[in-house]
Backbone:
């Protein structure tokens, strides 16, 4: 199938792909073609396409237009771990300092608006205003006891 890809700059590209290909595979082709990293893809209706799903599962059809939205990467770090946020989150470093994240939390970390690091933990505001935390519980990595209060959050700030 053929899909037209558009950037906000007006640049376009027609790409041949398979409906069973994942959105991630298409995104990688687009990043290489335009020499542009940190992209998020949207359908012609404005729906954000999930990277792990196939184009067919996301409803992309032959002749459709896909828009590539450039993401601004966000990074937070403490003394022993880093978190990089773009279309998802990549963490690395010492697991005791937030350098590891469980699969359930990782799946929720899409469209992060802001991220902060404490001495041994991280907190991120998601697009829907919820806050997700991970890392050492004593340093802010466990917010489960007040999760129902962490809604419609506009800004977070970290401390030691």
Residues:
């Amino acid at each position: 199938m053929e899909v037209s890809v558009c950037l906000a700059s007006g640049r376009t590209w027609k790409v041949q792909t398979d409906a069973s290909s994942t959105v991630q595979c298409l995104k990688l082709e687009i990043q290489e073609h335009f020499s542009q990293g940190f992209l998020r893809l949207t359908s012609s209706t404005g729906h954000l396409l999930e990277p792990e799903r196939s184009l067919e599962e996301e409803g992309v059809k032959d002749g459709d237009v896909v828009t590539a939205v450039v993401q601004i990467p966000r990074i937070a770090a403490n003394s022993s771990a880093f978190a990089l946020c773009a279309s998802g989150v990549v963490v690395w470093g010492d697991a005791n300092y937030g350098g590891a994240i469980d699969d359930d939390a990782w799946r929720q970390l899409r469209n992060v608006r802001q991220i902060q690091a404490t001495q041994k933990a991280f907190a991120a505001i998601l697009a829907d205003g919820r806050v997700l935390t991970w890392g050492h519980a004593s340093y802010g990595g466990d917010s489960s006891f007040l999760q129902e209060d962490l809604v419609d959050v506009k800004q977070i700030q970290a401390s030691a």
About this structure: The two ends are 52 Å apart (CA to CA). Residues 23-34 form the longest helix (12 residues). The mean pLDDT is 89.
